[in-house]
Amino acid sequence: MTFERQRSDNGRQTGIGGLIERGNGVIRAIAQPSLTQLILRFALAVPFWRSGANKWDGFLQLSDVAILLFSSEFQLHLPGGPYAFPAPAVVAFAAGSAEILLPILLVLGLATRFAALGLLVMTLVVQLTVPGGWPLHLTWAAMALAIMAWGPGRLSLDHLIKTQWQ
Length: 166
What we know:
By secondary structure, this protein is mainly α.
């Protein structure tokens, strides 16, 4: 059995096919790639920014709580472990710095793929530190991978720089 497309006098498809076609057109209008990429960048930046902001008591002044967490609470759950973080003050400083810098780069769309890669690596370390959080960590990883695969989009400094240098 074959299905013939019905068309109206103006050439538009009618019936169920036409309804689906119009619905897809509305979806494409809402989910513009650049808007989607911008929202992905913000969505991935927010949890890391919030975590990073909690690690600081001022400019380059790491909070005592952050150091305490990396010294006594956080551990890497690897085979044969768990293991304490090496040099906890250094790791806390690096993590806190990355959690501020990388989200800023993501939101601006500057060095976007590298920022997303950095947050993907951090997500993997967080997963090793908090193994039960995998559903959330999987979401972060998916967002980072999407940004890495498709880039920052037109609403980014990367795009602006690229178009200025061509």
